[in-house]
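Researcher: First entry.
Model:
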Amino acid sequence: MRRVAIFSDTPAIVKLWSHALVSHFDIFTAASKQELVKASVVIIDSHKVDTNTDLAAMFSSTSARFLVVGKDWSENKQINALVHGAAGYCGESEPPKLLLQAVTSVLKGDIWIQRHLVPRVIGTLVKMKPERTQTIDSHKSIESSTLLATLSSRESDVANMVRDGENNKAIASALEISERTVKAHVTSIFKKLDLSDRLHLALYLKEYG
């Protein structure tokens, strides 16, 4: 059973989230950042994110994926969390069933955010990238085109749907294949393109696809 850490200082929130997930995952409450290394997914109270001045360092401090749960976060704040490494954002007032879906989705490697925000997340990441010389960009473009050519036709279909913000379930339905097959394709795509997550795959395709 996958381990899910709840990182919050509010007992009522810890109790609510634990109750929603305990029958599906191995739930534990993390008292410190050091304990987060034990988890596959960290559900983090947005208050802890609000008080952190280095989001990138926090989200990269462990191999766990971070799902931020907050109250009335603006779309800009949600986007900012994702571009700095969070795997998703879920509203605090959402029903427990939706939190379960969010955690399950994040564990599968999906990003949990409103679909219409995906292009804005990608656009923000593009702007954040350091400037490079034209020669370097040219070489990178050639290399990337070569790597993209190694994808099978079905892998290309899956990659393009990931770029559009579709999750595994939607991709499976559209392509009439199982979610397990979609996951296998996504894993293969990551390996071939030397990428680690769906957001950077979307960014990669935007630049070189």
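Researcher: Second entry.
Model:
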Amino acid sequence: MEPRSSDGVQLLTNSGDNVLRVFNIEIEKNQKEKSGDLKVKSEFDIGEAISYPATCCALMSTRDQPIKIIDTNTGITRAKYKAFDDKEQILTAYSASFNRCGDKIYMGSWERINIFDVQTPGYPIREIKTSPDRKSRDGQKGIISCIDFPLLTSMSTDIFASGSFSGSIAVWDVRKNTNELTWKVKNHLGDGRGITSVQFSPCGNYIFSGARKSNYIGCWDLRNTSKPVTKYRRGCHTQQRMGFVVDHYQKYLISGQHDGKISFFDLCKNNLTEPSFEFEDFVGDVSLHPFIPMLASVSGQRHFDSVLRLEENNEGVESGDSSLRIWDISKLINEI
């Protein structure tokens, strides 16, 4: 499950049952629990679910299918975007995201990044080959697993960062006519594990990165890329994506952990601070409300013992804590 909300009106989650759920955010203290206000069923695993800036639409990507823009009020598909490889087979969108202006869609696949114009559904307006060919060691190899953009106030809208499952991080400037990258880290913190999350800091000078089965979140200074500035320890013992977020004041780095905790790292003091919220299961992702001091978090993972019991008894088995929760973090914000 991954929480996504760009305008604060709705909250989107995608989960292992191939359902995109939309929750309308209601600030009511007496409301303890609710189900999804809208559910969109998919035939395949949902790779990404990103809300469109300032509107009730969402971007949804699935395996071997076009990217779709879904109306989050009705569930109707508004537009489709697709790209093909050299053999005319449709490319799977392993990552997809709107840029900060919301007029372009960036799709990451195997050693390719395709750019679509939102107002022109169909085929991409540009393709960036992240590596010259399969034998070359130049560029960014492997599956492009995540894409992020700096804030509009900090940097140009033509610059973005990408991570790949080969363990590399790259920064691109689409104003260049060539496919040459601007900056690259070949080996994430020396472990070489696949990158699952990248995020610019609000000021645009730093990039935070997380990887598969890596117990650290790396922090890189774009002005001095010889080595990471620092790294923050978290528990991550799974191949699943484990997301994190930096608050709007660039004070805290917030991340889930494998043991069910949500940790707050003080970026000024470079240490772990309190409070820490706890789940009963793996915390997969966190998301901040853009205007209100609220934190959304999701938990849950596949349990092997539950799968065995499900096959033997041919009935559903509840195991772990698969839930979406919203936390009040006004106490932390007031301390800034």
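Model: Note on the second entry: The chain has two helices and 26 strands.
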